[in-house]
Amino acid sequence: MERIRIAIIGVGNCASSLVQGIYYYREKKPEDAIGLMHWEIGGYTPGDIEVVAAVDIDKRKVGKDLSEAIFAKPNNTKVFMPDIPKTGVKVVMGQVMDGVAPHMKEYPEEETFVISDEPEADIVKILKESRAEIVLNYLPVGSEDASRYYAECALEAGCAFINCMPVFIASDPMWAKKFKEKGLPIVGDDIKAQIGATITHRTLAKLFADRGVKLDRTYQMNTGGNTDFLNMLARDRLKSKRISKTSAVQSILPEPLEERNIHIGPADYIPWLKDNKICFLRMEGRIFGDIPINLELRLSVEDSPNSAGCAIDAIRCCKLALERGISGPLISISAYTMKHPPDQYPDNIARQMVEEFIQGKRER
């Protein structure tokens, strides 16, 4: 089959894990391909994905072949596929806009972004010339203006769009209409992990509800040492992120908790954790006879490979939509792989919806 041609906006840890995964699974067979939700979707395996364009703003990545850029600082995720062949894809300079928080310049270069002085590339031209079919947005949290800029570039270039970060595009009716009118699919917003803080919190919240437990209050606090957590020290960049993560949990409950009884968000930046994310979760409720029950959980996971497992399915479902002439928000795969999709569904239902989509029974 032909390759799925994707463009990546933001060559950070998530992009590194995704690219490593594409080459890693090319060497695997179905029976030993650990860590995938689907080996094959519509005839496409993970190795059928090809990155044809890449955009970043860091001087250690811009101008480099993608195979080098994914391992350049400040990236610090686990390397599980070190031998990536030259791709022939040179990382081009993007628009900075609000993609870099002012406080980032106060940290050592190996931990933070270092803006390149290369001229900004014509992104629409790059997308067209590379014949990219799908654009993945991996910009830092809080990059509201920059994310919308790249969404417009995708529209102008005739590319589908997968919004992996918490700016509301796929879930915004105005943007949904734009992609629908252009005949292009869109998936979003804010990528989930395979087994991460949000999916675990949602699962436990549903367990409480299904077993008749009244959830009174809960928190989820996350720490890490990658640029995502460093970026999120600027609390003014977190509005969409908090809404995204909180609504993902609230949507599972029979009745939403009052705002003061639910707190979900990052706690702090700890450099030596690198790309390891640690989640502290607490749930307080009442069982039979109004008797209290408290649950506490600590989850430790490598953050970026955890999200790549969802991205690799979103890419392939997006390709199926392109082949089938389906445009606008893809409801099923968005609900399954994103924290703030256009429509929220319990994860077991979203999974069934995705299976039906793959079989051609939904979103025709």
Can you describe what's shown?
With 364 residues, the protein is an alpha/beta fold. It has 2 domains: 4-192 and 305-358, NAD(P)-binding Rossmann-like Domain (Rossmann fold), CATH 3.40.50.720; 197-303, Dihydrodipicolinate Reductase, domain 2 (2-Layer Sandwich), CATH 3.30.360. Helix content is 34%, strand content 20%. It contains 11 helices and 11 strands. It has helices at 13-26, 66-69, 123-130, 144-157, 173-182, 197-210, 227-231, 239-250, 303-324, 331-337, 347-358; strands at 4-9, 49-56, 92-93, 134-137, 160-163, 185-187, 214-224, 262-269, 276-287, 291-302, 328-329. The protein has a 7-stranded parallel sheet, with helices on both faces. Helix 5 links the parallel strand 5 (160-163) and strand 6. Helix 3 (123-130) crosses helix 4, helix 9 (303-324) packs antiparallel against helix 10 and helix 10 (331-337) packs across helix 11.
